[in-house]
């Protein structure tokens, strides 16, 4: 009986800790984003345009911001599902893309990683490095974020039209078809539309607030886009194909790992996606885990460009 009570107390304490941490992180991210969108242009720039430099550290916190949204995607930001999803939707609106899209896209990534979702790979029998490179580098240097933001326009279409589009773009080497199919589901599409409208109003108002300094906000959002896009596939670039659990654990200095909410331990996350961010490092150490590379080195090696696959009778492998 004592062991049972101790176990129940431990689980209750864990829920309380998760609730406090998730709510605190959400609050911090909301404040920082409202600072970027409205406090800087309305309170600081009128005093001195040099305050525009305050947008730089905010852009550099993009990895932290995405990591908090990522916790909500996996239901780990708050123990209560309804509160978790409200937090996720609110943060996603500030990010610039509906939560329904980000959640569906990321969960499909877990399902199809290194099978359908392997963005750096091309088949030399059907294409070439020169043909694959433009699209690859566009996605790498901001294109991924641009696609997420541009998806807002889908809210203007009927759900049936989005489903038809899903069938039109469905191909074996992309998750675009399943992603649009999930977004078009009745129970999801209305949330998608509401959030898309909120994004348009919020960011439209922010650009108006910046006035003649609108380019500063655009530069800050472009910086967010580059960081998100560069980071996205660094954990999978060049790893074995047809292995959905395959992902790299990348080394970061301890303080930067905290800022990244341990997102750098991506291999551990793919194997145990139910772990909260603060549980990843203890689990990684308990298993005697070793990092595959440094984070900055892994990001930089993507500059090599797309990778051709060599197909034989047994399997696909990277050349």
Any overview of this molecule?
- The chain has 319 residues and is mainly α.
- The protein has 14 helices and five strands.
- The chain has helices at residues 2-44, 55-60, 62-73, 81-95, 99-112, 129-150, 159-169, 176-183, 186-210, 214-232, 254-259, 266-271, 277-286, 295-300, and strands at residues 121-122, 250-251, 293-294, 307-311, 316-318.
- A three-stranded mixed beta sheet has the order 1-4-5, with no helix packed on it. Strands 2-3 form a two-stranded parallel ribbon.
- It is globular.
- It comes from Nocardia amamiensis.
- Keywords: Membrane, Transmembrane, Transmembrane helix.
- Residues 52-291 form the Fatty acid desaturase domain.
Quick rundown:
By secondary structure, the chain is mainly alpha-helical. The chain has helices at 2-44, 55-60, 62-73, 81-95, 99-112, 129-150, 159-169, 176-183, 186-210, 214-232, 254-259, 266-271, 277-286, 295-300, and strands spanning 121-122, 250-251, 293-294, 307-311, 316-318. The protein starts with a helix and ends with a strand.
Topology:
Elements: H1 2-44, H2 55-60, H3 62-73, H4 81-95, H5 99-112, E1 121-122, H6 129-150, H7 159-169, H8 176-183, H9 186-210, H10 214-232, E2 250-251, H11 254-259, H12 266-271, H13 277-286, E3 293-294, H14 295-300, E4 307-311, E5 316-318
Parallel strand pairs: 1-4, 2-3
Antiparallel strand pairs: 4-5
Helix pairs in contact: 1-4, 1-9, 3-4, 3-5, 4-9, 5-8, 6-10, 7-8, 9-10
